[in-house]
Specification:
Blueprint: H1 18-33, E1 40-46, H2 47-53, H3 55-60, E2 72-76, H4 86-90, E3 99-110, H5 113-116, H6 125-134, E4 139-148, E5 153-159, E6 169-171, H7 176-183
Antiparallel strand pairs: 1-2, 1-3, 3-4, 4-5, 5-6
C-alpha cells in the first residue's frame, strides 16, 4: 500500500482504532506547530455525541458527517500553567461526563538504554536534567499519550531527528507513567 498523499508527501498508514487515530491526529497537529513548544492537553469526546449535543462546536472543529462510529474528536484545552509541575497540574483536573478520554502532548529529552547505565548516582532532579541535556546521545522526543475512561491507552512517539509522519511509533505501553497520570484524572 502506497502511503503518499496526492501532493507527494508521505502519510502515515491508516490507524485501526479510533483512539489510535485520535493520537495520530494530535501528533500531526503538534508537528504542524513545530518543536520547542509547551505541553498541550486535549479532551477526547465522542464525535457523534459532539455533533448531536454541540453542533456549533462541531462545526468550528470541522467535524465531518462521515466520521466512523466511535470516532473521537480532540478538543484542545487552555495552556498548562507555567511553573507548576505536570504531576501537580494533572492532579487538579476533573473531567465532565461528556469527556470520553484525554490526551497530552509533551516534549522531553531521552537517552538510549546504553547511556542510562552511565547516569551518575545521587543527582538531584535539576542536575539530572542538565546531565541529560548535555549528553551526546540524547534525543528529543515528542510524546502524545491518550487514555479513555474505560482504561484503554495509546501513545505516539516522534523523534526530532526523524520528524516525519511515517516515522511515528505507536503503541499502548510506550509511556506508562504518563498514561497512569492521565488515567488518574478520571478517578473519582
Amino acid at each position: 500500500m502506497d502511503n503518499t498523499s496526492p501532493d507527494g508527501t508521505a502519510t502515515p498508514p491508516p490507524a485501526s482504532s479510533p483512539l489510535t487515530r485520535a493520537v495520530l491526529e494530535i501528533d500531526a497537529y503538534a508537528a504542524g506547530l513545530g518543536w520547542d513548544r509547551p505541553a498541550l492537553l486535549f479532551a477526547l469526546v465522542d464525535t457523534a455525541r459532539l455533533r448531536e449535543e454541540e453542533p456549533g462546536l462541531a462545526e468550528r472543529l470541522d467535524v465531518g458527517e462521515t466520521d466512523a462510529v466511535g470516532d473521537l474528536t480532540p478538543v484542545e484545552q487552555d495552556e498548562l500553567p507555567d511553573g507548576l509541575p505536570l504531576d501537580e497540574f494533572l492532579a487538579t483536573i476533573a473531567w465532565p461526563d461528556a469527556v470520553t478520554g484525554c490526551a497530552l502532548t509533551i516534549e522531553r529529552l531521552m537517552l538510549p538504554p546504553s547511556a542510562e547505565a552511565a547516569i551518575p548516582e545521587g543527582l538531584a532532579a535539576a542536575e539530572l536534567a542538565d546531565w541529560v541535556a548535555r549528553h551526546p546521545e540524547r534525543q528529543e522526543v515528542r510524546m502524545t499519550v491518550a487514555v479513555l475512561r474505560d482504561g484503554r491507552r495509546e501513545s505516539a512517539l516522534r523523534l526530532r531527528e526523524k520528524d516525519t509522519a511515517t516515522e511515528v511509533l505507536t503503541g499502548e505501553g510506550l509511556v506508562p507513567g504518563l498514561a497512569e497520570a492521565l488515567s488518574a484524572t478520571f478517578e473519582e
